[in-house]
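can u do me a favor
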């Protein structure tokens, strides 16, 4: 049934379709229709970063930037939902059009640019939480904030979301905010992470509760760069790493006209890149720091592949758009089968 709904939605502009789909999902949850339409996903609890996740399949950040729909999305069977990326101040993002589908490759190109209503709006939404699973909040910097002052934006967001998040993700890997990816490397990364950890300690003392922090990295790194990032994450005491964000490469979509659009590529073409980074991270980190695998998960096999590569949890995004709720159950079952 989802494939028929998707075909109708794909007749609309990509961003219009995205917003309309979320409105439909939100309405279905308010009318208590979601649980009637979807099969139950068996519990398969996993403990990561000191948190018990009901099952290891989550929704990646980007689909629900403002926290307007996480209650409804969570009702679809996700073990965890990550909302954002959110910034201190509201911002419009990049000019439209900025979202492009490549259905033949199960891919999406976006250059959204952290369009969002600001952290205060998200906090008000999260205060009305009904979702019983794990909630992550993904934070970033405003486009107008100089890169050298980026830490200030992350701290502002941390201070406002800390008491409402089960974990916080620091996004330093979107290709759609100028200079952001420079924060992934060397002294820039170490200074940022040191600031983040100091703020985490202050907030833990203030709220009497430890909220883990993960860092989301890009897939466009060689082995040396991955090793450098892994070393920084360990040295600064970060709680987890999400691998990976979208790629600036165009491998797998070169023959499609849309590939000329700037932005980050997600979906099936990023599958191998993401898995290679997970392999490389695990070679450096082992069991010292958990990896959340995301990128190109379109079926149960690709979800299980991320776990085999070293991830403890997985997240879906583009695959969810192309496959719908069936992907959640298929991924959960494929991962559960690895244990048995």
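np, heres the sequence
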């Amino acid at each position: 049934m989802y494939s028929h709904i998707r075909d109708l939605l794909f007749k609309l502009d990509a961003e219009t379709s995205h917003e309309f789909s979320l409105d439909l999902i939100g309405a279905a949850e308010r009318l208590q229709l979601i649980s009637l339409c979807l099969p139950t996903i068996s519990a398969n609890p996993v403990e990561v970063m000191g948190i018990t996740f009901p099952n290891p399949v989550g929704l990646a950040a980007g689909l629900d930037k403002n926290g307007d729909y996480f209650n409804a999305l969570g009702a679809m069977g996700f073990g965890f939902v990550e909302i954002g990326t959110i910034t201190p101040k509201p911002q419009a993002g990049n000019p439209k059009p900025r979202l492009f589908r490549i259905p033949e490759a199960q891919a999406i190109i976006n250059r959204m640019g952290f369009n969002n209503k600001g952290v205060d709006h998200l906090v008000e939404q999260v205060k009305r939480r009904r979702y019983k699973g794990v909630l992550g909040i993904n934070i970033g910097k405003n486009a107008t904030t100089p890169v050298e002052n980026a830490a200030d934006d992350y701290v502002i967001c941390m201070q406002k979301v800390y008491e409402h998040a089960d974990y916080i993700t620091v996004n330093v890997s979107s290709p759609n905010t100028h200079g952001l990816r420079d924060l992934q490397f060397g002294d820039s990364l170490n200074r940022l992470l040191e600031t983040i950890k100091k703020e985490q300690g202050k907030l833990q003392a203030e709220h009497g509760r430890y909220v883990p922090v993960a860092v989301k990295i890009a897939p466009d790194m060689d082995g040396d760069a991955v090793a450098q990032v892994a070393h920084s994450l360990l040295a600064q005491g970060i709680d987890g790493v999400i691998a990976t964000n979208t790629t600036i490469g165009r491998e797998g979509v070169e023959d499609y006209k849309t590939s000329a659009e700037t932005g980050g590529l997600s979906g099936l073409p990023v599958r191998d890149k993401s898995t290679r980074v997970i392999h490389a991270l695990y070679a450096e980190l082992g069991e010292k720091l958990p990896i959340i695998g995301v990128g190109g998960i379109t079926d149960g096999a690709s979800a299980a592949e991320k776990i085999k590569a070293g991830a403890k949890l997985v997240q879906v995004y583009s695959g969810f758009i192309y496959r719908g709720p069936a992907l959640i159950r298929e991924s959960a079952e494929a991962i559960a089968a690895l244990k048995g």
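The radius of gyration is 18 Å. hope that helps!!
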